[in-house]
Design brief:
heterodimer, A: 4-stranded antiparallel sheet, B: alpha/beta, FAD/NAD(P)-binding domain, 5-stranded parallel sheet, 31% helix, elongated, iron (chain A), metal-binding (chain A), nitrite reductase [NAD(P)H] activity (chain A), Nitrite reductase small subunit NirD (chain A)
């Protein structure tokens, strides 16, 4: 099953990713849903949440959720812990310009619970 | 309310307004200028030729005047002063009453009375409008002559060259810039100008300008001719004093309103400042004295004091003419002063320098610099402050290429030395901005002190003072670690320590910007750990991945685990315990190059379980994941070896336990060998100790890796206690001063003075910081605790070691295979 990058309008299911306390401040963790690994980031310094694929496209490892958060100018980003490739958390764009982009997913917080919006591609 | 009317809106007029505003004047101010635009920077007028951008030259916008309540009237010329009624009238018949009138009418280009100067194609070089007319005319022309080989004339020649015109300079005197430089300097300058394609005609008195209505050439008194399409006159300035005569204001013989040291004309309610004022029969054609005059007037108008007076001005100057440095300072000729001139002339390099040393050889009277004026500010200040000369004054100008032979640095300047003459800023002012206000760059200095905002000639010196002062404060120049912190690692070290900052967030909020990144976060994490040795677990998300998970991330996203085995010594029981753990979790096992046992293939979920078992068996973290002390390797030493001189194992264990957990700019390794055979390879380590007949030799700054380096002897034949003391000092000094991720070898290489300096600091305690370094180390040692233990005992922290936050399972994508009876990761 593959989930695509999507907009809020396209969301078919809001997946409960767990309580906000599962995700360290200014850090991330990953969740498992229907075979997909999704990285969820609690960017508390910006008071924002982000969700992306967990797979780093460089060496194809499921480790983006362990990456370090930061900003480049105004762009929030995550640096892969493996080789410090950086990706925009807003668009998924590879900020080093040498790898594929990553998928990003809509995210929302309700009653201290994190929800990721997914769209199932047929 | 007091009414102040200022006539003229040039640089000095603007400066006066600025000073009045700064001093919180309560008067109403009206400025009347005849040019269409507000004050602009006439000093850099030739820049207008490059881009015709008047905004860049602007000193203040109309909004600035309006915002400060100043009534600015442009394109209006004052035609009459009525001193009895205290009012002025403009050419549009508008009248303005005043209590105080300031004449800042400046000067006009002096046009010599040559036959034909009224012909079309003849210009003066003074205002933006002049330049615009020249540029328009120059499009149709192919050649231009400049009348006058002084400062402004050569500037005008550059302007003509920029218009792609064949350019000649016509000078009456036998050399260029006759008022600033001597014959030899003039010859060199002529050569430089000619190299650039400018023709230089000397000893030429122009008798007439030829042409019918439009000029076609020039004729000289020696019956020679020059065919040329246009002429730019730059033969000096004439003060704009035409308002004076009719109003009964005294005007000097050579022009200019006569003023006293308070800048008052013979009517005490009327002042004159800038190039229209004649003080002691002197007209100043530079902007800096004008600014000084503005200060004198502003003080009187606002504070009603005559304490501040104008007492003449040093006419030293430096400029860059078409890429050629030209400077003169003090008395460049000393025609009437006994002196000994020292000069060097390098026609090959196009450099000429001359200094005039007083007869007693003690002070500098003045000088000339052409082709290389880098030392102008310094020499000028030595001259002004009558600073002592070095034993061989020739050293001041005879600087070899790349060799900083001139022994005098900004350090020698007194704090009172004026570094920016335009804004009257002293060296002390600049130092204060750096030390007290935390300014770290030139823009900051400009904002805080205004130094360098006038002609800009002082910027090289201001920059030297900035670097010198920062350096003395222990900062490294402009090595900002990333876009989020405008500081070097050393500066951050000091900020954290002095302000007792304990978290990244606190540092970012106080001294940073943005939300940080993968560069500054680990660097700060390392600093916090080096300074406080607090548990890195408290700030897990600013740690590099290894430090965050207290293990080394490996292929497939699995981790390796290395328990500490100090000095490489291990009991059979502990060996068995490691074997059992490895077996239970199916970990690949290997003895490392540093005499430890590495256990590979642990999943994130299993890490706490593995540590639990290892800790139970008496192990603790080996910090193999950290930028910290990894291992102290040892040979067997005197205990078993027939050659061993001392107990290398015992000493290695002692040292490793002393520095375990110590965070540093990069990983640290040590070694202790029991004899010169060096079986521990101690000299391939950041610090290595080798037994000698008389004690121990201590080596530092070695490493293996991509650029192997042998450690260098720091101290020989010393006792164990001395070894420990010196390692304490060496490591703390390195931790405090190295760049992020700089190992000890490159750090030592870049350390000014190298190993000799390090010996002085560490062994001889030349800086007197030895005890401080030792006590800093004691704090870190006292704060040690095992990170693994904390992670497994603290449920909140322990929860972080899970691959998924919503599932207990391991990462299903991790793939392994079996080889040589062990588990291996599958290749990328």
């Amino acid at each position: 099953m593959i989930f695509e990058t999507n907009t809020i309008e396209e969301v078919k299911v809001w997946v409960n990713a767990g309580p906000t306390s599962d995700f360290p401040e200014d850090g991330g963790s990953s969740i498992f849903y229907e075979g997909e690994q999704i990285a969820i980031f609690n960017f508390s310094h910006l008071n924002k949440w982000f969700a992306t694929q967990n797979l780093c496209p460089h060496k194809k490892q499921m480790i983006l959720s362990r990456g370090m958060l930061g900003t480049e100018g105004d762009t929030p980003k995550v640096a892969c812990p493996y080789h410090k490739k950086t990706f925009s958390l807003e668009t998924g764009e590879n900020l080093n310009g040498c790898e594929d982009s990553i998928k990003t997913f809509p995210i929302k917080i309700e009653n201290d619970t994190v929800f990721v919006g997914l769209y199932e591609k047929k | 309310m007091t009414k102040i009317v200022i006539v003229g809106n040039g640089m000095v007029s603007y400066k006066l307004c600025e000073k009045l505003v700064e001093k919180n004047t309560t008067a109403s101010i009206t400025v009347i200028g005849e040019e269409p635009r507000p004050a602009y920077d006439r000093v850099h007028l030739s820049a207008y030729f490059e881009d015709a951008n008047a905004d860049k030259l602007s000193m203040a916008s109309r909004d600035w005047y309006e915002g400060n309540g100043i009534d600015l009237i442009t394109s209006e010329k004052v035609s009459k002063i009525n001193r009895e009624k205290k009012e002025i009238t403009t050419h549009n018949n508008n009248t303005f009453a005043y209590d105080y009138l300031v004449l800042a009418t400046g000067s006009a280009a002096f046009v010599p009375p040559i036959k034909g100067v009224d012909k079309k194609g003849v210009f003066v070089y003074r205002t933006i409008e002049d330049l615009e007319m020249m540029m328009a005319y120059g499009k149709k022309a192919s050649s231009a002559a400049v009348l006058g080989g002084g400062l402004l004339g050569l500037e005008a020649a550059k302007a003509a060259l920029d218009m792609n015109l064949k350019t000649s300079v016509v000078e009456f005197a036998p050399r260029l810039m006759p008022r600033q430089i001597d014959e030899e300097g003039g010859n060199l300058l002529k050569q430089k100008m000619e190299d650039l394609g400018i023709e230089i005609l000397l000893n030429k008195a122009t008798s007439q300008i030829t042409g019918e209505g439009t000029m076609t050439g020039m004729e000289f008194s020696d019956d020679t001719k020059l065919d040329v399409d246009m002429l730019i006159i730059s033969a000096g300035i004439r003060p704009r004093d035409e308002l004076g005569k009719e109003a009964g204001l005294e005007v000097a013989e050579r022009g200019g309103f006569v003023v006293n040291s308070l800048m008052q004309t013979n009517d005490p309610s009327i002042f004159a400042v800038g190039e229209c004022a004649s003080h002691n029969n002197m007209i100043y054609g530079l902007v800096a004295p004008g600014y000084d005059m503005a200060e004198v007037v502003a003080e009187q108008l606002v504070h009603n004091t005559d304490e501040y007076q104008f007492d003449g001005f040093d006419m030293s100057t430096k400029l860059k003419l078409i890429g050629v440095d030209v400077a003169s300072f003090g008395d460049p000729f000393c025609d009437n002063t006994p002196h000994s001139p020292i000069s060097i002339s390098d026609t090959q390099a196009g450099i000429y320098k001359r200094i005039n040393v007083s007869e007693d050889g003690k002070t500098l009277l003045g000088g000339i610099l052409i082709g290389d004026a880098e030392d102008y500010n310094m020499l000028h200040q030595m001259c002004v402050n009558e600073m002592a000369l070095p034993p061989h004054p020739v050293d001041l100008i005879a600087k070899g290429s790349g060799d900083s032979g001139a022994a005098i640095g900004v350090d020698a300047l007194p704090d009172t030395a004026q570094v920016c003459s335009c804004e009257n800023v002293s060296k002390g002012d600049v130092c204060c901005a750096i030390k007290d206000d935390g300014v770290t760059d030139i823009n900051g200095i400009k904002k805080a002190t205004k130094a360098g905002t006038g002609c800009g000639g002082c910027l090289p010196m201001v920059n030297n003072i900035l670097e010198d002062t920062l350096k003395k404060m222990g900062a490294t120049i402009r090595k900002e670690i990333c876009e989020h912190f405008p500081y070097s690692r050393q500066e951050l070290f000091d900020l954290i320590k002095v302000n007792e900052i304990k978290t990244y967030k606190e540092l970012l909020n106080k001294y940073g910007q943005g939300s940080g990144c993968e560069t500054c976060k680990p660097a700060v994490a390392s600093l916090l750990a080096s300074i406080w040795n607090d548990l890195i677990l408290k700030e897990a998300t600013i740690q590099d991945t290894n430090d965050r998970f207290l293990a080394n991330i490996q292929k497939g996203g699995s981790y390796s685990v290395v328990p500490r085995i100090a000095g490489g010594e291990i009991t059979p029981d502990k060996l068995i315990a490691i074997g059992e753990v490895a077996k239970e979790f199916d970990l690949y096992t290997k003895i490392t190059g540093g005499q430890r046992i590495d256990l590979f293939g642990a999943t994130l979920n299993d890490l706490p379980l593995i540590w639990e078992k290892l800790i139970e068996a008496g192990f603790e973290s080996g910090h193999a994941y950290g930028k910290s002390l990894r291992t102290v390797k040892s040979c067997v030493g005197s205990t078993w070896c027939r050659f061993g001189l001392h107990d290398s194992v015992g000493f290695a264990i002692e040292i490793e336990n002393r520095y375990k957990g110590l965070r540093s700019p990069h990983k640290l390794k040590g070694g202790v060998s029991g004899c010169i055979r060096e079986c521990a390879e101690a000299r391939g380590k950041d610090f290595g100790v080798i037994a000698t007949e008389k004690g121990w030799n201590l080596y530092v700054g070695g490493n293996g890796g991509a650029n192997p380096k042998h450690a260098i002897l720091l101290a020989g034949d010393i006792t164990k206690e001395e070894v420990v003391k010196y390692i304490d000092r060496f490591l703390m000094f390195y931790i405090k001063t190295a760049e992020p991720l700089q190992r000890t070898a490159p750090w030592l290489e870049k350390l000014e003075g190298g190993i000799d300096y390090l010996k002085q600091v560490v062994v001889e305690d030349s800086l007197g910081i030895g005890e401080q370094l030792e006590s800093d180390m004691e704090v870190l040692i006292a704060n040690y605790s095992c990170e693994w233990k904390e992670a497994i005992n603290n449920p909140k922290i322990r929860k972080r070691f899970a691959h998924f936050s919503n599932s207990d399972q391991d990462d299903p994508t991790q793939k392994f295979k079996r080889e040589r009876d062990q588990r291996f990761p599958v290749a990328w």
